[in-house]
């Protein structure tokens, strides 16, 4: 009997246990179909012949001199009649060893930094050469792919699903009938519900209408439903539960439960595909959003006893215990803030502390939108919400609603490295981000200097779909965009710094600043370069009518410049003002003809009035100066701090006030006692009155907190926070574009090779959706590929399988920097069905020769210690596969009578595992009673 499924893991394990084709188990658990040469015709493998070993230093020298990595002529075989496949295998092995030697040189601390670029370049050349050779070479006795050999391919990237429901954060634990503390007091809010026909129905909620009924999860849900039903609406509210994991500790090697699992409760709104609901509240307070790094970057590593029983610890001395968080605080006394279940390091007035997704690094900018949404721009150091980054680092834009629910994730898609440094949100919900990019970004960037950074700016529509991206570099050195802003017409202004001349302007000296204008379609209108002969920098940008203000520093002096943009094609510098020795964290408008500026200083500012005095050390400040940048009697500065250091990392302007955040070492910060080893703080300053309108001090896990950016919605806090509801509409990610759901950019590509046909290229276009991509894949695969959608927590995934047992296809990566496979989270390789034969083991279902995969990722580099370690692991796997193929060929050429016999009783454990797998096999095959079993397969 032949059974159609892919039991590679099972057979690999069993063969390793039983000694059957042990070498083959290393990569895919298969039995060879090589032709029956005699054992005497099998050449000695170079790894078994010390005389053929080449020193790593010699391999490196050859690679750096431009020698081929795969050289069949140089491969030695000691049997003249041996099949040509052996030479090909030995040539691949030598190439992989050369890559391994290069990776070793890159990790060697004695290797000169000047040699590393050449080593990296040679490594990439060799990786491409070996991958191309594996894919293009026709072998006699087997099929080889540089990627994986598997029965299916499923993307890790997920596409948004239109959702009919919205689930709040967890609001209570225990019983849904128990009163919830957060629901007590005054809780009033409004829902404006838009029906399918366009009419809007307003429903006012006031929990005091519940009278003496206890305010629990179930009773509040029932109250809201009664109001919605009475209004003739279809939206309904229910409670939904989940279980926490029990809390345990390990004592003397024994695990003890110290807290049982708990039931936790949230609200769930349904019916949102038919009706749209928007929430508001009659009474509001400032909503303060702080992005922060929480935890100890050099935390002591827990001791782990070595597996060999020795007493020496093999654990590193320290580990990075940090995580990125979004913290929401409520100003105005925080009456509507309440601790949510599971919160740690709770701060008075805290609404939530949301851990950002894995892969998110430093958050450089935060902003709020008119609809109450919160946007974060951060470094992506790994896959974020299923979006695989192409290079070492990317820029990632995250949109949250005001309740802390993630709405969407957008990665820029840089081929090498990118950092997003600033973002702005327009009144109609468009989002502009700006920063720096190294290496390729778009298909026309192939000539970009891979060692120098350029500025970029990207504009997204209100759904987070990219409208345009512009890149601008200087003639010399690095440059980066540091600030971005909209004007009332939708034009975009970018301010940054450069080491050379940019936009056809002349360099002044050192690091200069620049201001650049784009129209709403991304057309560059003009560039103005400015600065001193020293090193200058940019830290903020704001537009008021036709006036553009750029904040930064000239050397160590805080400086504000104004530009006339009445004709954006001719930006004109109109005034400059120095504020003294200070660092600026942000700039904005007070709505009354003044600029508001936040930052930190040790010596005070050059302004006419001090409304709140400097405390000593380094203080945070808020300053007010006239928009014409002349010194006037209304200029003022207010300081906030203690006797220690208040280091402002970010500042913003909202509600006519300056808001600052950062770290503090002061033990006497007014009204705020120390709470951890390194504390963060937030302060709101009414500069004119010299008043601190809000202040809070807080810490995080490991008693270490490092705020990175801040945004404030002057009306972002309300009774909605008590119920876990957002200000504005209940929304989810509505974009179906491939370029939104993944890091792929228009112009990225990959290839599909169906059977023995020539490869066909699949190119990502700007308007491609999951459905159009599926159609392209079917056509490129000559309709031999079964293309379906799967499902994950993040959304719909892409699943590819052969149409039938006769069909095979290969997924081949696109060019470096434009590889759509990597962006989609699809592994390159050969996709084929397999069958399990009672006497021959696992075989390709198409009846062809055996298939193997080197399992080389489409992207490997030597940019960091982690990258080098990953590359070395991948190369070890590939070398293991090559040697497993040799072992299979050798075994197939060895007469059965000469093969080693395996004797002895099968252990009880092994029998138990076989029984488990037999049960799984019965479920897969329907236990049809044909008599086939794992025992018979291996008996």
If you had to describe this structure to a student in words, what would you say it looks like?
With 939 residues, the chain is α+β, with helices and mostly antiparallel strands. 16% of the residues lie in helices and 37% in strands. The chain has a 5-stranded mixed sheet. Helix 3 runs antiparallel to helix 4 and helix 3 runs antiparallel to helix 9. The N terminus and C terminus are likely disordered.
Shape: globular
End-to-end gap: 15 Å
Specify Rg, calculated over alpha carbons: 32 Å
Low-confidence stretches: 1-36, 924-939
Q: Please outline the major beta sheet.
A: 5 strands, mixed
Summarize the structure.
The chain is an alpha+beta fold.
Q: What topology does this entry show?
A:
Blueprint: E1 2-3, H1 8-18, H2 56-64, H3 84-107, H4 116-136, E2 142-145, E3 148-150, E4 153-154, E5 165-167, E6 172-173, E7 188-194, E8 200-206, H5 217-230, E9 236-243, E10 247-251, E11 254-259, E12 263-270, E13 276-280, E14 284-294, E15 299-300, E16 318-319, E17 323-330, E18 350-355, E19 360-368, E20 374-380, E21 394-400, E22 406-411, E23 417-425, E24 431-438, E25 453-460, E26 466-472, E27 479-486, E28 492-498, E29 512-518, E30 524-530, E31 536-544, E32 547-554, E33 557-564, E34 572-581, E35 583-589, E36 594-601, E37 609-612, E38 619-626, E39 636-640, E40 646-654, E41 657-664, E42 679-686, E43 691-698, E44 705-718, E45 728-729, H6 738-741, E46 749-754, E47 760-763, H7 770-780, E48 785-791, E49 796-802, E50 808-813, H8 820-824, E51 829-832, E52 834-837, E53 841-844, E54 850-853, H9 865-892, H10 908-925, H11 934-938
Parallel strand pairs: 2-54, 3-51, 37-39
Antiparallel strand pairs: 1-52, 4-49, 5-12, 6-12, 7-8, 7-13, 9-12, 10-11, 13-45, 14-17, 14-44, 15-16, 17-18, 19-20, 20-21, 21-22, 23-24, 24-25, 25-26, 27-28, 28-29, 29-30, 31-32, 32-33, 33-34, 35-36, 36-38, 38-39, 40-41, 41-42, 42-43, 46-47, 46-50, 48-49, 50-51, 52-53
Helix pairs in contact: 2-3, 3-4, 3-9
